[in-house]
């Protein structure tokens, strides 16, 4: 594994204030959050693959709206079939959820493949960037291939196997936290060693003074956390601008 499985740190964080600007619709019976850029263009798209808190967590909807504000038609499918992990529930047993209820690739991959098919078909997307937070990072790696995702970005990924990372075929950008038991220093270095051997552009930014989940669930009242969260988002936008809009 180039990152460890999810743990309790994956459900802890601060719920952000704001009102989502997008809407929930369905793609092949899968609830999906849609957010459009101001010109309603769908040619440049972003597919957000969430952490285990799922599509209804307001933070990820606000992030989708931010990508839309930067010119990207953005969608967020429900990868958990209505059964995500609750945020900040003190006694919730994450390892048990992983063993008994967490969806695995045979269930998740078709949702992503069908969403991408819909984006390219019905919505005419020419280029699609994949954003993976925690759990979603695994699936950015799995789908960063010809005919699927064109460009990838992930923050504090979990569950990513060595083979999945070795199999990517497009540019990948990573935001990492200084304190992260899921993606610790040795896993970052293993990731760097793998990426160095691949013939794709890559980037790995390490942010101090933050922990796992910061790109989605940071405490915005803490200045270093707010800075890191915002910079991680700008990192993703700059990456997509370079490899989607400027191609």
What does this protein look like?
With 247 residues, the protein is α/β, with parallel strands linked by helices. The protein has one domain (8-245): Rossmann fold. It is 36% helix and 21% strand. Strands 1-2-4-3-5-6-7-8 form an eight-stranded mixed sheet, with helices on both faces. The radius of gyration is 16 Å and the shape is globular. The mean pLDDT is 95.
Classify the secondary structure makeup into a structural class. Answer: alpha/beta
- Which percent range describes the beta-strand content? 15-25%
Q: What is the 3D form?
A: globular
CATH fold type: Rossmann fold
Distance between the termini: 32 Å
Essential attributes:
Rossmann fold, 8-stranded mixed β-sheet, alpha/beta, Alpha/beta-hydrolase, 8 helices, 247 residues, 8 strands
SSE layout and pairings?
Layout: E1 23-27, E2 30-35, E3 44-49, H1 58-69, E4 73-77, H2 94-100, H3 105-120, E5 127-133, H4 135-143, E6 151-155, H5 162-166, E7 172-179, H6 185-197, E8 202-211, H7 214-217, H8 223-245
Parallel strand pairs: 3-4, 3-5, 5-6, 6-7, 7-8
Antiparallel strand pairs: 1-2, 2-4
What's this entry about, in short?
The model has no long low-confidence stretch (mean pLDDT 95). 36% of the residues lie in helices and 21% in strands. It is of the alpha/beta class and 247 residues long.
């Amino acid at each position: 594994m180039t990152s460890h499985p999810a743990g309790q740190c994956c459900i802890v964080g601060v719920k952000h204030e704001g009102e989502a600007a997008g809407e929930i619709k369905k793609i092949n019976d899968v609830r999906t959050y849609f957010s459009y850029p101001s010109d309603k263009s769908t040619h440049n798209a972003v597919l957000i693959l969430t952490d285990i808190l799922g599509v209804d967590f307001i933070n990820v909807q606000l992030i989708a709206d931010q990508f839309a504000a930067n010119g990207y038609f953005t969608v967020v499918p429900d990868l958990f079939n209505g059964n995500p992990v609750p945020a900040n529930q003190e006694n919730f047993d994450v390892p048990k959820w992983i063993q008994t209820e967490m969806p695995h690739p045979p269930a998740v991959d078709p949702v992503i493949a069908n969403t991408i098919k819909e984006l390219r078909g019905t919505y005419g997307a020419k280029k699609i960037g994949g954003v993976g937070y925690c759990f979603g990072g695994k699936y950015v790696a799995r789908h960063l291939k010809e005919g699927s995702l064109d460009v990838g970005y992930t923050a504090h990924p979990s569950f990513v196997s060595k083979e999945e990372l070795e199999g990517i075929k497009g540019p990948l950008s990573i935001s990492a936290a200084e304190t992260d038991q899921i993606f610790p220093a040795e896993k970052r270095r293993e990731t760097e060693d793998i990426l160095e051997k691949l013939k794709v552009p890559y980037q790995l930014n390490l942010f101090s003074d933050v922990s796992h989940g910061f790109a989605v669930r940071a405490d915005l009242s803490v200045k270093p956390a707010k800075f890191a969260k915002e910079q991680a988002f700008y990192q993703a936008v700059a990456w997509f601008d370079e490899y989607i809009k400027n191609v």
